[in-house]
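pasting for the record
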Amino acid sequence: MKTLLIVYHSMTGGTLQMANAAAAGAVGAESALHVSLLQAADASVARVLGADGYVFATPENLAAMSGQMKDFFDRTYYAALERLNGRPYATLICAGSDGRNAAEQIARIATGWRLRPIADPLIVCTHAQTPEEILRPKRISAMHLQQCEQLGATLAAGIVMGIF
């Protein structure tokens, strides 16, 4: 059975909602696919190597991916280097301003791993700009959650059919 690994970090719940929606889309689209949703702190090299495709989901923190996502990549990058070539991935960003730098950081890492993006990064901007708004629990709109779900379904179908 093929496996989709969704690695996420979430501080205020927004990224978790997005990752859950992608997982729901993947599970709903393909019963022949195992979907594994893991917090970045719990994701190991073995889980990365055992997956056939990936979703990386992170909040934008200080115009970058979160520290826990960076830690995940730090812990797994070299052990997986040259062993993931050609596998598909997608990126989800819950941003307060624009999320582009976080997406670019993940794209550079994925390029080093020789992963193939299946879509542009999906960036949901919450426009949280004050300390109170930034720290407040996030609520992702139904429209954005549907986009996450569709991305998960697309990635799942492509993995199972061997398109990606």
